[in-house]
Amino acid sequence: MAVLQHELTLGEAADLLSRALPGHRVEILQGRLTVTPPPDGSHALSLTKLGRVFDRAGIVEAGCDYVQGVGLWLPTLPEDFAIPDLSVVDEDFRDAHVTKNHYAPNVFRLVVEVTSSNWSDDLGPKVECYAQAGIPAYLVADRKHDEVLLYTDPADGKYSGPQRFKRGQSVPLPETIGVRVELSVDTLLDG
Question: The whole model's pTM is what?
Fold first, then answer.
């Protein structure tokens, strides 16, 4: 009896893994399939507190909103996409739907990642991918190295070196997000 074999595309493999591993984050970065386990409590609390800061700053009144776990279509390779921990997006971001749960990068004003076990993706491929996608600001709460990094103003598909912030400092976010916000490094790192 003959058995037909079908080689999966990266997108098909990502879909299968997403269904097989509920709660895990499956992404394709620079043609590489990555899987991240569910966030721990401190990670989740950092994002919750960040949302509260945006609410107090009037993000919705400024014509933006923040969302967690929404797909960002990446122009790096045909099947590339990321699922940032939190993003500040234009209020009409749903009009920029590309495919599946992925939206065009032009509606993203800020992307935030809080590092987990896959911290090297947040500090390497995602920096490159988000710059190539033209994301105006990328904030990384780097729990591995106990600092916060802010990348801004990509030019020619690259960010210049990050601004680095240590414990006890505040991170002033660029006005491109629509509101004036300063974030506590300690809160971003500890939740």
Answer: 0.92
Q: Which residue has the tokens 């920029």?
A: 96
Q: Which of 77, 129, 75, 70 is nearest to 100 (CA)?
A: 70
| Contact of 47 with 54, CB cutoff 8 Å | no
Query: What's the alpha-carbon Rg for the chain, to the nearest Å?
Result: 17
Provide the CA 136 distance to its chain's centre, in angstroms.
12
Question: What are the DSSP calls for 105-130, one per residue?
Answer: GGGEEEEEEE--TTHHHHHTHHHHHH
Q: What is the DSSP letter of 21?
A: S
Helices (H), 58-167: 119-123, 125-132
- Residue 118: name the closest of 153, 143, 146 by CA: 143
Above pLDDT 90, what percent of the chain? 75
**Neighbour-count burial of 35, counting CB atoms closer than 10 A to its CB (0-12 exposed, 13-18 middle, 19+ buried):** middle
Which one-letter DSSP state was computed for residue 75?
A: S
Cβ proximity of 150 and 182 under 8 Å: no
Give tens-digit pLDDT for 20-50: 999 899 998 999 999 988 889 999 999 999 9
Tokens 């991170």: give the residue.
Answer: 171
